[in-house]
Every structure is written in C-alpha cells, then in structure tokens.
C-alpha cells in the first residue's frame, strides 16, 4: 500500500540567513523561512505579535457607520444586530450587542434559523424587525450581497449598516454604510494591512473599537480604549479560528491575545463549555477551538438554532451556562451521528464517478442543510476533489461546496450566477440556494468548469514538509520553541517534519471502526508514541521500517503529559528522492 499524498520538503535556508538569528534555534529559523518570514523585523513581529494600533476609521464606511450609530444612541433608536448562525456570526453578534449595550443602546440580536430562513439578510426578517419598532439594522458576517433586502428595508423606514468579510458582489448594497476589508483590498489606493482576511467577528471588533474611540472622554487615552476592547477578544478568537480564516497578520495578534482571555475563563459561558468538554484552564489553543469548542458552537445552528450558542456567550448565570453547555454538547453528538450517516450516503452516490470526475456533486432530500458543508468537506478530504453537497427542498435547494487549492469554487459559483437564487463564498468554500429546475444544469456547469480548469493536473494533496530531521531531535525543548509559532491554523500550519527509517515497534488499530492507528516508533535511541488518524487501514500491513511525515504535539491523559507524533502520512522506508520546494 502506497502513500496517497505528495511530500514536498522545503529548500534549506542559506547559511548566511541563519547567521542573522543566532538567538533562535536553527530549526525555528528554517520554519519561519519556509513561511516567507525572513526579515529580522518581520521575525520579531511574528514571534511577538503586538496589539492592533491601526485606526479603525481608516476602513471604508466606518465614519458613516459610527455617525449613524451615535445618532441612534442619542435618539434612543431601537437597533437590531443581524448575525449568522455559525460560530463566526454568533460571536460577532454577541460582541456587537455587548458593546452597544455598554454604550447604552436599545439593542436586540437577530440570528436567523438555518432550516427555515437560511443564510443572510431576508426580507421577511426585515419586515418582522420593522414591525417590532427597529430603526437601525447592523449586519455582522453577512449582508454584502443583500441589495434587494436592503432596498426593502429602506421602503419600511429602516436604515442598514453592513459589516461583512465575504467577497464583494458586483455592486455595493445601498446601505447607510458598508464595512468590508475587501473594499480596501480592491482599492488601488488602499493600505495593504486591511486585506489580511479578517473574519466576520474581526470586522465587528473593528466597529466596536471605533465606537469606543468615538465615545471616549478626554483625557482617556487610546491605550485605555484598547483595554476596554480587550475583554471582547475571547469572542474574536473563537469566531476567527472557527471560521478558518488565515492566522496571519492582525488575525494572529487578535487570536493570540484572545486565547489568553479564553484560558483565563472569565466569561461564564466559555468556562462552562470548556468544563463540559473536559478542557482545563491554560490548555486551550487554536487547535482546541477548531476541533472542540468551535464544533459545539456551530452545532446549535446546524441541528437546532444558533441562538443557544449566542445565549451561552452572553449569560452571566452559571446555572444557565451549564445547561446551555450541556445542550450544545448533546447537539454536537447528534451532529456527529447525522454527519456520519450523510457522509456514507454521499460517498456511495459519488463512488461510481470518483475516479473520473473533476468535481463531486451529491444532492438528496435527506441531506440536512446544516451539515451539507461538513459532508462536502469530508468528500474533498477523502478524494481530493472539489465537492458539492445539496439539501433538496420542495422547490428550492441549498448547497454547500468545499474545494482544493487548484480550484476556486467561489469564482466557479460566480460563473453560475444566472442559475442561482443567491450564493456567496471564497476560493475554498461556498454556499448557494438554487431552484430545483436548475439543479441538474448547475451540476453540469460546475463539472464542466472544473474539468476545464483541472485538465492535465495531477489531483493529489501535498504535504509541505518544513524539514527532514532525525526522530531523536524531537524533545520538550523543541516543543517549547515551536510553541512560539502559535496560534497555528489556516495560513500558519503546524510545522511538519519528515523522519526516515523509523522502526515500528508496535502498532494497532483504534477508534470507531478501527479507523485510526496507534504506533510505537523508534530510531534506535528513543521510542516515541504516535497516532495516525484515519489511517487504520495500515493495521496488519505496516512494514517494519517506515518513513513518516508528522507534527509534534503534547498528549495529556489521566494527568500525564507526553510528547506524541501526530502522523500525517506513512510510507514504506525508502532511500529514494523527496521533492524539494
């Protein structure tokens, strides 16, 4: 059995480059070099990210937004913060509601129901808000393409401020203000530092900072205003990591500081959620958000209603927080079971074409809309093809797409504009609503676009290896050095290492359906525990000596902390060449 992934080992940094950093471990310098972090000032900024000193008023639309909100505060206007049902949208809603309430606003949240309303600003919801006496709607994590809905709001006498981070439509919606970092990225005169992939909650945080700055009373300093906004950073970290935006630039600094607040567990709801998930203070990192906390927050909107996650983040009552944390934990288990069943069906549906198709497309009435994106992501992970999974309704269907680095699914959806009721997304992921009459033409067009763009390309995932090392170089000291690269995640992956000719002392399949592999490896001087997720098929067939690509992690179990290799791929040992970047 052979590896199904390419291994590409980065070229070694020149010796002269290493000499610039005598105070850093050479392997750390190499990892930074691989990420393009080469200048001394950039290395310092990466290893020691500082608080945001940018002026939020430099963002297009910020002055207009703050002016309108200040007018609402003076007049006692009723404000609605209109969010999304995922972790990014829920944290953004909580952040802005908390800020506005602190400023004395009459404000209420509105989080749509994924199952009955779907994503984004809706005319029906705007009508409901207008009847409730709302004067101003502020969107978070949505609204950038809601032209008709905002026109409808204007007819009902509502002003709308849009804050969003999704890709721009062909024209700006006719809102009082539109705040979206992509406006700066698209402007030839813009400052590059605003195009660093802020999440929806990251954009909401900039609005909160601007409001706090505008509210300050002399002689309050900028630093004191910054400290006022710091208590919101736990929400920023949760939403930013869960939305899988790049952990670089400003996002990196925000998440790093936000993790400090999460680990302090001062917010009652976060403390309850961590306790329910078995997480201890100081043990939460970006990976924990991505794999433990984020899925629980998302489960509310996927299975039931996102307002449960919102209430958890906003409550000050420990008993209510415990009940809500228990609910989210239960919903997450349900989500796992539903996802597993839908994945098996989707896998069966595409099995006959998977060897020849450039894009996988599965549509069925019993695919719940809340987990379509998860199923599409798992198809993409398994088969390395852009994948679309559609939940079919009576007349309209909702789909989610996940893609590979070679194919921009957001651009592909743009090319299907005439077939779609609404859509949005970016290069790696997208979502849409389509009339059932257009479902087959959509599948055909997306498949043709993928076939044209991917023709002649070898579609195989690539592991970008930071360095080839001996197993004996793995140590607690190195682990501490690598911790300086945190938070790791999208855009700043955990460093990967390649070690050759490791002897397999022991291995066994573990987990549900024996899907994972537990190993004991040795290089002749030391033995290492290792885990290889979703590689249980090696059980009983693993050679005695292997090459492996892995990252180093700490495994804590029953109060004991041990270093562990998290194996990403295995091959029979070979002295053959490895591709070099």
Describe this entry's structure for a reader.
This protein has three domains: 6-48 and 462-580, OB fold (Dihydrolipoamide Acetyltransferase, E2P), CATH 2.40.50.460; 56-234, Alpha-Beta Complex (inorganic pyrophosphatase (n-terminal core)), CATH 3.90.1640; 351-454, Roll (Diaminopimelate Epimerase, Chain A, domain 1). Mean pLDDT is 91; it is low at 576-581. 41% of the residues lie in helices and 20% in strands. The protein has helices spanning 15-19, 26-34, 40-47, 62-75, 87-102, 123-131, 147-155, 181-186, 200-215, 222-230, 233-242, 249-264, 268-276, 286-303, 307-314, 318-350, 372-383, 409-414, 439-454, 476-482; strands at 6-9, 78-82, 106-110, 136-140, 159-163, 177-179, 360-364, 387-392, 396-402, 420-425, 429-435, 462-465, 467-468, 497-510, 516-522, 527-532, 545-557, 560-572, 579-580. It is of the alpha/beta class. The relative contact order is 0.10. The longest helix is centred in the middle third of the chain and has 33 residues, at 318-350.
Number of domains: 3
Number of beta-strand segments: 19
Q: For the residues shown, what is the average pLDDT?
A: 91
The shape is globular
Based on the coordinates given, report the CATH architecture of the largest domain: Alpha-Beta Complex
Low-pLDDT regions: 576-581
**N/C terminus separation:** 25 Å
In quaternary terms, these chains amount to single chain
Q: What is the CATH top level name of the largest domain?
A: Alpha Beta
| Coarse structural class | alpha/beta
Q: What is the fold-level CATH name, i.e. the topology of the largest domain?
A: inorganic pyrophosphatase (n-terminal core)
Question: Which strands sit side by side, in order, in the main sheet?
Answer: 3-2-4-5-6
Helix percent band: 40-55%
In terms of DSSP E residues, the strand content is 15-25%
> Any idea what the radius of gyration is?
25 Å
Number of helices: 20
Taking the sheet with the most strands, its summary is: 5 strands, parallel
